[in-house]
Write a structure and sequence with these properties.
Lipocalin, about 220 residues, disordered N terminus, eight-stranded antiparallel β-barrel, 9 strands
Length: about 220
């Protein structure tokens, strides 16, 4: 018995390769990751029927509003125009990273733990002061619109094992987290405005990819 095997044109091979790339990226673009290998502790597991499914995903920081009894103030920790991201995973884990604008330049040391000159020590201190991060688990109280971050570890060691409560509001694709504190004997509030751009990014990505797959005939070598 003889079998006839047709050779696939090079342009179609190219299309198939990019299609494979698209299929690989789809779950990431739409935040439909496979279940993670490590789940959050049972007491912090995320219930899918508690209304918190709207919070799950990666949110980009767009603004921080800091205010005191007399109105708006300059944020003493993050300053103007910080950048950052906060992630709530459906397995119950979360993380947050915030960086201030215009971080000073720093020369890469031989090792992270190497003995530092006074200049290197100053640069390390500046890098520490202009970055903030922690991770842990999260729970959401839909009745009170309050989310709690249960810290497992933080850039600031004294924050490990703390619980950070945030008031939650979600409107027009933006997530607002507000915390009220008392600093230097006065009440203050810090609101983190975050947006979730995944749908817009996904739509733009697939429009460009589809156009490329339909029109591209770039030859490839070999095969």
């Amino acid at each position: 018995m003889r079998h006839s095997i047709a050779r696939i044109p090079k342009c179609e091979v190219l299309h198939m390769r990019y299609l494979k790339l698209a299929l690989t990226l789809c779950p990431i673009a739409f935040n439909q990751w496979a279940p993670t290998a490590i789940s959050a502790p049972a007491e912090h597991a995320v219930a899918t029927n508690s209304g918190n499914e709207r919070l799950i995903g990666a949110w980009r920081l767009v603004s921080i509003d800091y205010s005191g009894p007399n109105g708006a103030l300059t944020d003493p920790d993050f300053g103007p125009n910080p950048e950052g991201i906060i992630i709530y995973d459906k397995s119950g884990w979360m993380s947050v990273q915030i960086v201030t604008a215009n971080r000073p330049a720093m020369v890469r040391p031989a090792t992270r733990t190497s003995a530092a000159t006074p200049e290197e020590a100053s640069a390390k201190a500046a890098a520490f002061d202009t970055y903030y991060a922690y991770f842990g688990t999260w729970t959401y109280d839909a009745a009170k619109s309050v989310i709690t971050h249960h810290l497992k570890s933080s850039l600031l060691p004294y924050e490990a094992a703390l619980d950070k409560r945030r008031e939650v509001s979600l409107e027009g694709g933006r997530l607002k987290l507000t915390v009220h504190t008392q600093e230097m004997g006065r009440q203050s509030a810090r609101s983190f405005g975050n947006e979730y751009p995944a749908q817009a990014i996904s739509a733009a990505f697939f429009r460009v990819l589809t156009q490329f797959l339909l029109t591209s005939s770039v030859p490839i070598s070999g095969g």
